[in-house]
Every structure is written in structure tokens, then in C-alpha cells.
Write a structure and sequence with these properties.
By secondary structure, this protein is of the alpha+beta class. About 30% of the residues lie in helices and about 25% in strands.
Length: about 375
């Protein structure tokens, strides 16, 4: 069914269907899902605080109030207020981003007020277009590694029980572009530190049940600090490799958090494999060469590729092109990673003049 505008009509139809759980399927649906759950008297977070599950500014304020380490920040729709806040703090650098997390707008690092002023109008327009909210968040810029932590929460004896399912470490190029994302060993001390921090953050954000994707910054002198959290299940081409490595399936976990699984349900035995997501960044005029893509797909540790790497004709790569590597042998993954980067530099992308479909004569 489709929700149009009448909450009464939507709730009445869902109640007639016997709906017993509500899970947000997208960032735009978080507030609606929580309102519907409340109207149906189902388990869920307080809809009056739904900003805490998807808004950077609201999240930072809630963490500070709960005594959990957080970035210094201001959430505002006023450029003057943002500049005044930055002038009072006199920090080395700032990050300007939409208040609504999950929108396809990249945060911008600014060192001075002039840079904040220059980036403000375009980012405010994009925030309004994608999220319907003109509020932006200006935070301190915290140098250091970035991590993505996936968790799922469920009600146990009336209390929220948070479980971290997987933690990923991001590696970026010198220009700031995402190069690879590595699944971290759950026994690593840093993984445990991120794990414990996220558990505290989830309580502060009022998470009751369901999945949450948290982005964390880590600096040696500060420890882990939340950048943003989204209460939706995150899926990717790496899901099958993740399930085999850890035994966790994100969509299944999301449903199990609100609909308890059968007691006899089998849990797949995790392999413990190392998993790496390799992110590609084609040029604006580049098209993927199907012959080179075929070579990439046949590398020993390749477990999955994005759809544009499967095309039999030169394809225009969208954002999010990636290759998933999985193996119990780390050196095998690193070997294939070096091959992928070498092919990317030399022959994965066709020049604009070669992008039209034509017969290929390269050896297979």
C-alpha cells in the first residue's frame, strides 16, 4: 500500500492487514515508520524524537547531554549564526554538511569564514532539494580514520539490547576519495573500542529496535566520536560476502529485531574471511572496458562486483562502482587489490572516442 497523506487511513489499512512490526526502509521513512508504529502501539522509538535517528545536529546535542563524546557543532539555517559560532570557537578547520544525514551531498572542509560563506548557498539548496530541510550543521573538523559500524537492536524483557554486527574501516586517497573499506576483525582492540562507544551512543539516540548505521571518526587524542547515525538497514554488493564471513544478514537482522525468529532457525556458520570493498572512481568521460572488467571478475578473491562491471558493452559507470574481495588469505586479497588498481590506471576505462559499441579484438 502507499501512504499518501492521511495517517488515519494508513494506520487503519495496516491494522486491517494485521501488521505486527514497522521498519523504515529509507532515510525519508524513519519519522513516518516511527509514527505508524506508535499509532499501531507496536515496539519502536518515540516519534517525537525521530530527529535523533537521522539528523547530525540533533544527534550531537543528544550525545553531549548524555555525557557521550561528541563533535562540537551548531545546527542552523542561518549563515550569520554559523559564522558567529565559528568565530567564537576559532578552530583550525570546520566541516559543513546538511543536518539530514544520508542525503547525497558531500560534506565540505572549511578553514575560514570565507570558505563557509562560499559553500553555504549551494549546500543549503541541495539539502532542501534532497531532504526538504534547509538546516545545515557546522562542526569541528576531526582528522583521523573513519569507520562504519552496523548494529541491530531488539527489545528483550522490555529493555533495548544493542548488538554490533560488523565494523568497517575506510581508507581514502590523498585527495579524500574513498579507496577501500575493510571489514575489521571483531577481536581487535580498536573494534572493541568502537563497539563500546556505539552502544552508549545508541542509548543516547533513543534507539529501541531495528538497524542503525553509524559513521565514526577516531583520533588518538579523542577516541571515537559519532559523525552521523541512520536508523535504516544498509545494503550493498558486499552483503553476500559479509553473510558468509560473519553469519549476519542485514535485512534478516532488521526483520528479526522486530519479529523474533523461530527457535529452530539455523544460523549460518561464519567463515571468518577477510572482506574488502574496493571503490572505483572513473573519470567523467570514461567508460568501462568490458574485456578488462571480465578480467577483474575472474580474479581469485573477487566475490561480487557492481552491476556496471557486468555489462558486455562499454558502460558509463555510475557513482558507487565497486569490487568485493573475500578470502581467508590476506596476502591473496592484497595481491588482487594491486592488480585491480593497476588495471584501473592502465586499461579499465575507455577514452571518450572509444566509448561507442564496437567489435573487440582483445584476447580473452
Amino acid at each position: 500500500m502507499e501512504h499518501r497523506s492521511s495517517m488515519y487511513r494508513t494506520v487503519r489499512l495496516l491494522r486491517a492487514l494485521g501488521v505486527s512490526a514497522v521498519v523504515a526502509g529509507s532515510v525519508a521513512g524513519i519519522a513516518l515508520a516511527e509514527r505508524i508504529a506508535a499509532e499501531l502501539q507496536l515496539a519502536g522509538a518515540d516519534p517525537e524524537t525521530s530527529l535523533l535517528r537521522h539528523d547530525r545536529g540533533a544527534q550531537a546535542a543528544a550525545l553531549v547531554q548524555a555525557g557521550v563524546p561528541a563533535l562540537r557543532s551548531v545546527r542552523t539555517a542561518s549563515l550569520t549564526e554559523a559564522l558567529t559560532w565559528a568565530e567564537r570557537r576559532a578552530l583550525p578547520a570546520y566541516v559543513l554538511a546538511p543536518a539530514a544525514a544520508g542525503v547525497p551531498v558531500e560534506p565540505v572542509v572549511c578553514e575560514r569564514g570565507l570558505q563557509i560563506s562560499a559553500a553555504w548557498p549551494a549546500m543549503r539548496r541541495e539539502a532542501a532539494r534532497h531532504a526538504g530541510d534547509t538546516h545545515l550543521v557546522l562542526t569541528e573538523h576531526l582528522p583521523g580514520r573513519r569507520y562504519v559500524v552496523h548494529s541491530v537492536s531488539r527489545l528483550v524483557d522490555g529493555q533495548s539490547d544493542h548488538v554490533v554486527t560488523d565494523v568497517w574501516a575506510e581508507t581514502r586517497t590523498s585527495g579524500g576519495r574513498l579507496a577501500r573499506t575493510d571489514l575489521m576483525n571483531r577481536h581487535h582492540l580498536l573494534t572493541r573500542a568502537l563497539h563500546m562507544y556505539v552502544l552508549r551512543a545508541l542509548d543516547a539516540l533513543g534507539v529501541v529496535c531495528g538497524p542503525v548505521t553509524s559513521r565514526i571518526a577516531y583520533a588518538d587524542e579523542r577516541g571515537p566520536v559519532l559523525l552521523s547515525a541512520l536508523a535504516v538497514p544498509a545494503t550493498s554488493v558486499a552483503d553476500k560476502a559479509l553473510r558468509e564471513a560473519t553469519g549476519h544478514d542485514r535485512l534478516v537482522d532488521a526483520l528479526d529485531s522486530v519479529i523474533p525468529p523461530a527457535p529452530a532457525q539455523l544460523i549460518p556458520a561464519p567463515t571468518g574471511n577477510r572482506v574488502v570493498r574496493v571503490h572505483l572512481h572513473p573519470g567523467h568521460s570514461g567508460h568501462i572496458d568490458p574485456w578488462t572488467a571480465r578480467i577483474l571478475r575472474r580474479l581469485p578473491t573477487v566475490a561480487a562486483v557492481s552491476e556496471d562491471l557486468r555489462s558486455k558493452t562499454p558502460a558509463t559507470p555510475p557513482t558507487g562502482t565497486e569490487i568485493v574481495l573475500s578470502s581467508s588469505e590476506p596476502h591473496a586479497i592484497e595481491g588482487d587489490y594491486r592488480i585491480i588498481r593497476a588495471l584501473e590506471r592502465n586499461c579499465l576505462y575507455l577514452a571518450a572516442a572509444d566509448s561507442a559499441p564496437r567489435p573487440f579484438e582483445r584476447p580473452t
